[in-house]
Design goal:
This protein has 37 helices and 45 strands. 31% of the residues are buried.
Amino acid sequence: MPPKKDKKKGKDEPVVPEFVTAYLPREPQPQPEAPDVSEADVAWKAARNQYVLPLPEWNADAADIIAWKPNEVETPFVSDQFSVKALPRPFMNVVSGWRRAGAAALAKGDLLPEEAEPQAQPLKEIVEEPPEPEDPKAKAKAKADAKAKAKAKGAPVEEPPENPSTMQQYADCEYHGEARVVTQQEFRSRELQLDLDDAAPQLSQAIAAQFAAVAEHKLLIPKGFYLWELIYPQDDEGMPLYNPHGKYTIKLFVQGRWRMVLIDDVMPVGHAIQGSSVFAPVMPASTNVNVIWPQLLAKGLLVAFQDDLSAAVLPVIQALTGWTPYQLPLAWQAATGLHSVRTFCTLKMNSQVDLEGRNRAVDQMPLQEQVDPRARGAKPAAQPSAPGIPAVPSLNLSGGSQQPAPKLGNQPSEALLEFLVCELEEEPRQVRLKAGTALPLHGTPRKLTREVESEEEDASADEATNEDAARQQPRAEHDDVEDSDREDMEEDEEDRRSQNSPSGDAANGVQGSARSNKEGGSQAEGGEGEGEGGEEGQEGEAEEDLTPWVAPWPDENPAPMMMKSVLQDFQSQLSGGFWVSYEEVEANATSLCSYIPSGDHMLSGLLDTRWNAERKEAYTIPPVRLLRVNLVANELRPDDHGTSKKNSLSPWFPTVITYEPLRISPLFGEMPTQPAPVNCVLQAVNEWRSSKSKNKASKAGPDRIHFTVGDTPAPFVGSTSQSLLLPPGEHWYLVLDDASSLSGSTLSVSVEGLLSNINKSSIEFDEPNKFLEDCGISVVTVGPMEYPIHHGYKVWTKAEVTISAEAGDVSALQLLCHVSDVSLWPYLQLSCLRMTTSQDEEEPENGRCASWSAATLLKSPLLRVMSVPLAGPSGLLPDLKASAAGGATTKFVLMLDGNIPKEVLAKSTGTFSLQLFLPPNKPDVSTDFDGEFSSSESGEDEKAGEKEKEAKDEEGPLHLELLTVNQTLTWTGECAPNDKDLVLCERFTVPNRPEGAETPGDVTSTLRIQVHGLPQAYLKATLIAQMPPTEEMRPNMPDGTRPEPLVRGAGPINPRDYGGRRNWLSRCKVVAETSGLEVISFPHVLLVESSTYLLYVHLDTFRGPNALEGGTWQIDSFGSGPIEVGADSMEKDLEELVRRSWAEAFPQVEGAPPREEVAKAAREGWLAKQSGYTGEGEEAAEETGPTEEQLELEAALQRAKEGVHPNVTISSFLHGHAVEPAVLVVEDPYTVAPDRSEPVPPDFPPPPPPAAEDTDGPDGAETAPAPVFPDDPEAEDTEAACGINAFGTLGERKARIIDIQSSSDRWTKTRTDLEAAKERNANQIQEMRAWREDFSNAPGGAPAASFADQRDSIRSNLMGRMQKCANLKQVASDPERVDPEPLKAAIAEAEESGAGNWDVELMQTANCKLAVLEGSKSFLEVLESATTKVEAAKAAAAQVREAEPGAENEIELKEAASFALEEAETAAEGLEKVLKALKASLKEAAAKKIPVPEEIKVEEPFQKADALLEDMAVLKKGPEEAES
């Protein structure tokens, strides 16, 4: 800032003094080019086959036009979506080959044609080819060929449809084999003919048991959803058709939706036990070998759950029915309650092998394999066709041959099955379970009884058992009954079933149809009047009955809760099964499952973020979603009189949440031994809701719902679910899914809303920022914008957030983050700073460069959801209103930076975004909700909301402004050794903004300093604002005039204007400081236009090395504008000015000597005054009197003599150095002990023992005795020996040798122990590795359950500790709480959870606050007691004084007064002690800035206590003083 030029002065006249400076700006280094990330853009293609492909959603129209190709028998269909690698090892141990399911009917006992093992094929490579031009001639030629063929056959020429339907494709099918998907008898009666082979593997037995459980509900399952009705292709009646081409589609409810599963009919087979068949099916099979629907359904389930096949039991029932499984912990009350209202309840238990039954069935196999020749020759009836479509030829769908399926020949084994709960008995507690013919563990066909005391009870039990057994026996055993009697028995049985059936008419129709098919062997329903005409009668009957068959099954699923009578009728039909005592059930089962039918009463929501099946584009990470569950209970219900009244209790709604991530595919590559677990957390964020929310929950749901996949005893199980109860109201959960950053997942939520208002209830997954804006919550957004491509450190974005004072006390902001490239998440960091700017009243313009400060509030790795605190390190929130009133401005700066290593390549088209919002300040949780909701119309509410929104100001309490960070500058330099350990000292100057420039003059920047070549260097950096000099500091001009005022921004400041180094230092103000190891940064600095800043970086030699040789430094600036940087030279400039001022001459005045001579004379005079130096060649001056300084010294010494100094040490020092003369002591009182005569080596041996009688050497020569010196320390205990040992070098040397030897021994022992410990650790590590390999290679995988409970316990303890710390912090920071009990309870809970080690400062603060509260409470109690006792003592003393001398009661009064005085003294001492402790606690609380209730700070009790203590002191002095 140079002064203004005086235009009146001439050009040659020097107005401004010479500008002296050594400052030179540095040139910024060129920025590195962006790295080549083309490899990352195509790297995703290698992962296309890494994850399981999702299944497409069901589409009936698409299923009808699938190319079935029923006439292509020579090249059967082979699916490429399934592989044997997905099957578990126990399953494959049974498999001996692969055969077509329909080939069994063709082989008829011969060897079946062998098929290759299923192998999945990877996705085709993405090849972008240009579209081929269409050739109209080729199309015309194809049409002409088709017409020519049709003309040759004599058929009318019709153009074939582009996408023919199923019936059109089957119009020309010429298959006449015996294989079929399902027989017409089974299809129309829904009678299950399933073979449950206990020699099958666990997976097959579990699937077959669930087939049997579904079949028990055949009358409840709607049309099109029963077992084989899920298999396609189908005819017009919905009956599945056999496809000779081997291509089928299964409709399954998986991943939250009905989906299409494409399969082939290649099935695994194993060796049969005996009979004409060599192979037996491994999958569930029908009792008729020609029927293949169980194998097709099981194959579809294997394909759908191929990443879950290691699970013991697959969710087959839900996949086949779409019903929601709701699980409860096993308890008798829960079981009886569910069974009384639900139709479908199951238990998972182990089965028990029935060897006798198996052997009996095997013995009967040769008899059952005889085939009825009439059945083979029977011709099936033709299928009816739709109008305009040719009739479908027969596919042999009649009865066919009843050849039974062979059984596997391997050893039968137990399996974990899902049994249907048929009946419960109270006395004794027992359960009847059924899963086909499977026998549950410890099951018995007889009902358990306590003790049978009579034969009648035995007989009744046997009779009941016989009835059950007779009910289970097949009808073929009554061969000796006549035909007429058999018909009567069947009719009676049908009547009984129709009366007990929930839908009697339907059952009658089904049974009649089944009987007619069984007796007549035709597809039609048949009549009752059968003649004896044999085949002729059958043909005639078939010709007469041409009425299309109509399915009697319901069109919709049943209600989740039936009427009691209907439910009892249904349960009475569940015959068979086995009884198991409840004790055995408790010992073997853990949970009870109830299946809730789907329908309009079910609320459901699905979040599907999976990578699509085509995978032609890279997977994009979806943003965080908000799950909103709004449950509104039914408001009114009618009473007995027809009127309506409100519900007294609000229901809780059963809820099932299922989480299924896309796992690593087992089809390609090797599966990891222990896959990484995938977690999904639903975090409750009900506090985000506005306080004006209409539908508030009286009770909150769970705070956190946690799902983990891959961290269970079966690590390859790909899905998990949880069942819970949710109260009515609105529940918000934030979905935090790990799989969303990998390949996606499905999260389905199902709620049974039978007791809810379905029209008002909803389940939705929303994007939080959009939904919160609609709710009126202030949301500000950064992005989405493309992230920079770089390696190393870079600031991605920076934003300035302002919170209006009307927002109130805001403790934190909520932040939602999204980055599209998952590989960058670990290297991103978010920082939050509080930027405070104030106004300097004395220098409003010049002081602006130093009137800001930045405090770091948060520095954390970037997370998808974050809470940004606004409180500083002291825990106090900024008072926005007070700051605004005082002229200060408080803003918050968010900064996102990344430090990307070179080995990480980011995608070139990635984006990121930040959503910041302000939750409601204080949600109104005090509501009078009692399970009732307002019945106001929704339209009125919407209108009121729109009016409120229009009236509301457009700008909310939250404002955001993006800061520019695109100006990246880098400067480097070398470190020079110096005595100040200074790494660098750089000057930062912000240039003036050119006129017309759009960029602002002030620059915001992030400064990052790092050193190279200085390992472990600990840096301390200080940023200083160099303010311009004041006008008083500036010296006069060379001509003696005052300089012109400085102009801001006119140029650099002349160092001469500061008028000296001291003035310059006074104008330097520290604005920011930081420290760190090798790399430090200032996250946010404000560099004011035309201002100068100094950056000092020192080495902290106490925390790291102090060497600077060979080191270099680097400064990076990521800011909004240009900055000029150079080595600061102000110290050198000021020093140079001083030197020049000594060399320059004074102004030319007559008779004035030069400046050099004056300086030389002054220096020589000073030296002469100090040491008598008189200069070169000059004689000493004449003696003069004592100087003034000497006189002052003598006076001070005289004063020291007269008095006694209070400090003895100083007094002795003054006396010894000022009074006592210095004396040289010639005589030394110490004695120097001489050394021995001859030197002895350091390791000299101890002296030999006394000479023995035999003095001969080894050769018989006499040996001379060892010489003994008179001063030898070992010779004898002489004065010389003691002196040598004590004071001589020999004793010191010997002691040193002993010390070295002991140290060496200790080191040798330590080294030995260390080697032993290393060897022991190595052995233990090897044992741990062997243990891990053994358990990893085990069939069941690593048993993670051994530590899962402990981990969950640790996790829950940690979460509990955090929650208790938060509660403690809330209670301790409450300035209005006076009662110490809640705080004491919170401290006890926090200490119990280990918060003392977690947050020591919080515990200290809480204990201090507790001491204040308890001290205040105790103080008031003691004060009240002491007041009473002191007043009593005063009254007793007054009675003594008023009593007349010699009165009768004088002695009694004195004794009473003495006793009262003693009690008052004790109370006063206690009061004084409590008062002192309370004041100390209040002082400590004030020092720590702990909020204390104002009631405690009231001075009145303290003044009262002081007055009371004064009164007590007066009472102690005696009656006279007390009276006065």
